[in-house]
Structures are given as C-alpha cells and as structure tokens.
Design goal:
The complex is a heterodimer of chains A (175) and B (542).
Chain A (H helix, E strand, L loop, with lengths): L5 H16 L2 H12 L7 H12 L4 H11 L3 H10 L11 E6 L2 H5 L2 H12 L12 E6 L11 E3 L2 E3 L4 H13 L1
Parallel strand pairs in A: 1-2
Antiparallel strand pairs in A: 1-3, 3-4
Helix pairs in contact in A: 1-4, 2-3, 3-4, 4-5, 7-8
Chain B lengths: L2 H13 L4 E6 L2 H4 L3 H14 L6 E6 L11 E4 L3 E4 L6 H7 L8 E3 L4 H4 L17 H5 L5 H9 L2 H11 L11 H10 L6 E6 L8 H8 L1 H15 L3 E6 L4 H16 L15 E6 L9 H8 L23 E5 H13 L1 H5 L9 E8 L5 E6 L4 H8 L9 E6 L5 E4 L9 H6 L8 E6 L4 H15 L5 H18 L5 H17 L3 H5 L2 H9 L1 H5 L18
Parallel strand pairs in B: 1-2, 6-7, 6-9, 7-8, 10-14
Antiparallel strand pairs in B: 1-3, 3-4, 4-5, 10-11, 12-13, 12-14
Helix pairs in contact in B: 3-4, 7-11, 7-14, 8-9, 8-11, 10-12, 11-14, 18-19, 19-20
Classes of the chains: A alpha+beta (175), B alpha/beta (542).
C-alpha cells in the first residue's frame, strides 16, 4: 500500500469512495462501523465484518476502513497483517481447515496435510490452481476430544483420516 | 429485578420441570457429530409419542466425555447414552416406555465421572446455556445479589483473599491480591476483562465453560467489578470459537433484559456492562498486556511491566484481568463461603482445576478434580490409560509454555508448585497424553514451530531465538546435527528464557528443555559425530 505518497493517494481515495458508493457491501460495512460509533478501537471488529462480506481484505478495502475510521492506513494494514485470521489474498471456493493443535498433531493431523499436499500439490495457506479449494491450518479449534478434526467450509468433522479428507476434496473438485 | 423476582423465576422453573428430562449435549464437540440432529429427532419422537407433558428434551452444555459424543443423559433414571445418532435417537424415547434403546450406554458411575469434583463444571451439562432461567433455577445470580446488598467492596476482596483462589490462566497469581490492587488503584474509570483467548493448542476448558455455562462467567465478572469499582467489562474471546461467541451474545442480551447487567443492578447503585471483543488468531494475545492492546484495536504486542495492568491497563485505566475459569469459580465461592472453598485442594493451591484430557488416551474430554490429585489417578484411573494396550510415555501440560512429565513421575500431585518443580507448568489446563509411539524430538520441534510462528516480533530474543532454536531442532530431527549443535541449543534456550520481553518468549524453550531433561537419549541417538570437534562424542563440557 502506497500510504506515504500523499498526492496520488488522494485521487485513489476519491476513486475508491466513488466505487464504494455503488457497492452494497461497502454500505453494510459502513452501517456496522456506525454501530460502533466509528470508534477506532473497534478496528478488529470492523475488519472481521469486512472479511465476512468480501471474503478477503484487499488493499482498497483496507484503505476504505482507514478513511472511515480516520486511522492511518499503516495502522489498518499493520493490524490486518498481524492477525492470522485475516486473509489478504482471495480464497478458493471451498476451505479445508486442518486443525494442527497438539491433540490433533499427536493423532496424525500432519499425515492428513501431507496426503493433501501430495495429491493436489497445495501447501497449507495455498489454493488449488482452479480456485476450488484452499488448504488452511488452524492452531487448535478446541475440538481436542474428537481429534484429529478437520473443518470443511465451517463444518467440523471429527476423527478425520487422510482418506476421508481426500474424499471430501475430491468431491469438491468434481463439481 | 429484586431478590423476590429471582426466587419467583426459580420456583416457576422448578415447577415447570417435567418428570423425565432428556439432556442432549449441544457443545461444539458433540455438535460436530450431529448432536443437533439428535435433539431434533428426540423432540420429534417425544411429540409423536404424546409425552410432551412428561418428558423434556433439554439442550445442554458439555457432558465431559467428548470422545463418546453425541451424549444423551436420562434423568432421573441416571442413564447415559453414547454415540447417539439421529437414526437411533427415537429408540431412546421408546425405551422410556419399556423396551430396549438402539444406542449404546455407558456407566455414569465409572471412575471418569465419579472421581470428579465439580465447582466450575457443576452446571455444565445440566442447564440450558441459552436460557437464563435455567441458570437462575440452580441459584444463579443469587451470589451477586448477596454481594451487592450485604457486603462492601472491601469485604468482597477480603473474602477472595481468604478463599485462596489463584489465577487459572496458568501463572497462578493469587486472585484476591490482584482484586485488592485494582480496588486500591486510584481512578474514576476501571475495567474488568475476561481472558477467553484460549490459545494453548490442546486446551478446551474455557470453550466448554463459555458454551455450557456462560452466565456463571458473567456473574463472576459482575462480582469482581463491584469489588474493584469497575463499570465496564470486556470478554476477549477467540474467533475460532464461534459457538461460544454466539452463546455469550445470547447470555449478555438476556442478562441485560432482566436487569442483571446494565445500570442499577438489583436496584443498587451498581452499574456494569459487558461487551464482547473477538480475537483474530494470535497466540500472544493471551498475554495480558498484548490482550489489552488487541482490545484497543491495535496489533497485539506486549509491553514491559511495570506499570502493571492493575495500575495502568486498558486505555491507561486500572484494569482487572482474569481467566474464564477464575471468573466461573467466583459465584460458587460467594454462595458457599470462602472457608468452604479454602478447605478443598492443597495448602498452597486451593479449589479444583479443570483439565482437558486429550491425545493418546481412552477417555478424552473434560474433567475437574481437586488440586493435589495425582496425575496417575487422572490419566490411568479416570482417563483409562492409553488405548490399544499401549504404554503411556509422558503427559504434556501447559501447551507450548509447559513441559512433558515422564511416566516415572506420574505420581506427582497436580498443583502449581509440584508441576513447576518438574520443569512444566499448570498452564490453563490442557493435558495431552503421549504413548510410546510419540517421538519427543518431534514434539519439541512442533512446539518450537508454534512459538516461532506466534512470536509477535517485538523483542529480539524471541523473534530471532525461536527461529534459530527451531532450525537446530530441525537439524537434530533430520540427523544432521552434532553434539555441539545440541550444546548451542541449550545455550539458546537459556538466553531466550532469561531475556525475552513477555511470557511467550520466556516459556518458549520449556518443551525443549523438559524433553531434554527426561528424554535426552532420544536427542543423542540422532546426533552425528563432529569432524571438527573433540574425538569422543559427549566429552564436551556443557
């Protein structure tokens, strides 16, 4: 983000606000900010909402948030990159999140990742070339009693195996 | 809302109680095995059998034995069905009228359940977490009423000191002392924060408490706020726990509607509001100063202490910060008295501790035991030992900040001091059991990788040290290291431990050091001879 260049940025903000006025999602985001009275300490809440609406946080979206909350773009970008939960790149249609907490690891979560990486040549954090499936890891989702756990598009699946994970991804790829 | 209203709700709730109650677990563990479908089927079957006046199907929180979920308990017959599916759920209702249920049962009097002593989890699996009336029916919010009307804030703090409760987040700082410090700090505005950023991989006690009994945490926070003179509270909860967030939102809304949160609680001058703050996936935010930065909407980096949060915390105001489990203990302490609580546990560690038992063990799930219970009892008697006849090799406590306790030390009582002596920590309560197939060097590397990823990068020892230590562990694991690398690793561990800014860096070497202490031979067999070093391996003075 070219935050320090003053002049081109002004133009960029203008263009951005113009574009935003035509996009309903920006309006919803602004209502959400209003709910927090545009408080600067609600930045993380606002970014959560932005990611929920747009799927990921692109540069222009972060700039929009910084303008509306009257925060320097560096601060918004800094927060967005600090936390693992925020994605700065577009994600695939489906998300396969493998929990890599200790309990899942001890019970073989790494083998699930290896199997997926080998078959579809995506590493954790990457998306398949056809943009179908993103492979992600989590730092413990608290489902240790049913380890290893894998989350397919928000649905937690207990006692996963490399085979069950490959089967699910295969199903997504076929569609 | 006055006490009479509270008692009225309680009586109404008890009068409405039906003869038979089917409790169906709706916590995250069982939900992932379709317990919601099970509950729907139970509801349907009860309606079809025309038993609505006799049987209540209640969605409850965690019933502790997570590995066997979804669980359905039948009161008062005291039956516990395990691994119930939507298909065989109706047969449980049919079995009420005689006949045999299609689902398997387990013995609710087995050691796993009977050896537990519940304070924090007393309501878990009993009350409906989405209905405040259900919590009021088990004497909920009575402690808050008593505190507000019959005690001065000073007396509340004194009782907390007397009961001897220590912080359940891991460090074990005396809670009464913390409350007293915040109460004494000058300032018109003070805050109470509940740390629900349960980042330790392998720990899920706080998630279960929030999902199963959110009102006990809210009541505990309100009592704490009265004691220290705060009027605003925040619960900082991980984004990874969507169900806990949803239940907390419901609980806060209901408490506000009933006037149990907000202004003029119980017609006293005391005001208290609670807001949620959602984390965004940063382990370091479990550290108190980092957590407050995150609540302020900034990057979650820690800062040096002093000033301690009790003097200058959130937005520069005096702030009380306690863990979920600590707050969940509070209402019971005031309802039953400080002496009652102080009589449980050991001399220096009072009360009970909730553990999340997981890993290579037969019974995984939640258990709450008095402090001082030997590890062996937890792991072998209650946990049922390693599955498939394997032998337990070590028990990991405290997550990436803790250590591995080897099998020969299983008779150690669990309290803050005893675990510290073995180079581990109590931690927040995650307990991962490892059997003889577990490679300890791999475990050390796993935790170091975790700390490396989660290091916030503010101080150099942690930022650079964790990377170097991970590299050395990598070299050892791939048989490329020599005895000098091992020596270097130990030196680095010492350096990072003593010079890092916050708890993350200071404890990052713990898993490595404790595995080195008890399983050194596993490291040494991986070492190569050093072409440039002394001729005899291991002769180097360490």
């Amino acid at each position: 983000m070219n935050a320090c260049v003053a002049k081109p940025q002004k133009k960029r903000i203008q263009a951005l606000l113009e574009h935003a006025s035509g996009d309903k999602r920006f309006k919803i985001l602004e209502v959400h900010m209003k709910k927090h009275q545009f408080r600067q300490d609600a930045l993380i809440e606002v970014l959560h909402k932005a990611q929920e609406l747009f799927g990921y946080l692109e540069d222009d979206l972060l700039l929009f948030v910084s303008v509306k909350l009257k925060l320097p773009p560096s601060r918004v970008y800094g927060v967005a990159t600090f936390y693992h939960f925020f994605q700065l790149k577009p994600q695939g249609e489906h998300a396969c999140v493998v929990c890599m907490g200790t309990a899942c690891y001890v019970k073989g979560a790494d083998k699930i990742i290896d199997a997926i990486t080998q078959k579809y040549s995506v590493r954790p954090g990457e998306t398949t070339p056809d943009n179908k499936v993103s492979l992600l890891t989590a730092r413990c989702i608290g489902a240790c009693g049913i380890a290893p756990a894998v989350v397919y598009d928000g649905t937690v699946t207990p006692r996963a195996t490399p085979e069950s994970a490959l089967q699910q991804i295969n199903q997504w790829m076929k569609k | 809302m006055i006490l009479n209203d509270l008692i009225q709700i309680k009586e109404k709730e008890q009068a409405a109680r039906k003869k038979i109650v089917l409790r169906c677990c709706l916590a995250a563990g069982c939900m992932s095995s379709d317990s919601k479908g099970v509950k729907e089927q139970l509801d349907k079957a009860v309606a079809e059998a025309g038993l609505q006046n006799e049987v209540e199907v209640r969605g409850v929180g965690c019933m502790k034995l997570c590995c066997e979920g979804p669980l359905v308990a039948v009161d008062p017959q005291d039956q516990l069905y395990v691994k119930v599916t939507a298909e065989n759920a109706p047969s449980i209702v049919a079995a009420l009228k005689g006949g045999k249920a299609g689902a398997a049962q387990t013995d609710p009097k087995a050691a796993f359940f009977s050896q537990q002593f519940s304070i924090v989890l007393a309501n878990s699996g009993q009350v409906d977490p989405e209905r405040i009336e259900s919590y009021i029916a088990v004497d909920g919010y009575q402690a808050l009423h008593e505190v507000l009307h019959e005690m001065t804030p000073k007396e509340v703090v004194e009782a907390m000191v007397k009961c001897g409760l220590r912080g359940r987040g891991g460090a074990g700082f005396p809670t009464g002392l913390k409350w007293g410090t915040v109460a004494k700090s000058p300032g018109a505005k003070k805050y109470v924060i509940c740390n629900a950023d349960e980042g330790d991989p392998g720990a899920f006690m706080d998630r279960s408490v929030l999902e199963s009994d959110p009102h006990s945490v809210l009541e505990g926070m309100a009592i704490a706020a009265y004691a220290v003179g705060a009027d605003q509270g925040y619960i900082y909860v991980r984004a990874e726990y969507p169900l806990a967030i949803a239940r907390l939102q419901v609980a806060i809304k209901q408490a506000k509607q009933m006037g149990l949160l907000g202004s003029g609680i119980f017609e006293s001058p005391f005001n208290f509001n609670v807001d949620l703050r959602i984390g965004a996936g940063a382990f370091v935010c479990g550290e108190e100063t980092a957590l407050m930065m995150s609540v302020e909407g900034k990057r979650g980096t820690p800062r040096p202490r002093p000033p301690f949060p009790a003097e200058s915390g959130l937005f520069g105001c005096p702030t009380l910060l306690n863990n979920v489990e600590t707050f969940a203990n509070v209402p019971t302490i005031y309802r039953k008295g400080a002496e009652w609580f102080a009589a449980i546990g050991t001399e220096k560690s009072k009360g009970t501790k909730v553990f999340a038992l997981a890993g290579k063990i037969k019974n995984t799930g939640l258990l709450e035991v008095p402090m001082g219970t030997p590890l062996r009892k937890i792991v072998e008697e209650m946990g049922g030992g390693a599955p498939d006849g394997g032998a337990i090799k070590a028990v990991q406590t405290g997550g990436p900040s803790g250590g591995c306790i080897p099998a020969q030390h299983l008779d150690t009582p669990v309290d803050y001091e005893s675990l510290g002596k073995l180079g581990s920590i109590m931690g927040s309560g995650g307990m991962i059991v490892m059997d003889d197939s577990t490679n300890m060097v791999e475990i050390a590397r796993f935790f170091m990788e975790f700390c490396m990823d989660e290091s916030c990068g503010k101080c150099i020892p942690c930022r650079a040290g964790t990377v170097q230590m991970h590299h050395l562990l990598d070299q050892i694991a791939s048989r490329k290291a020599t005895v000098r690398d091992l020596q270097k690793l130990e030196e680095l561990c010492d350096l990072v431990r003593n010079t890092s800014l916050c708890g993350l860096g200071q404890t990052a070497p713990n898993p490595t050091l404790s595995t080195l202490r008890f399983f050194r031979n596993e490291y040494e067999v991986l070492l190569q001879s050093d072409p440039h070093g002394p001729k005899t391996n291991g002769a180097v003075k360490s």
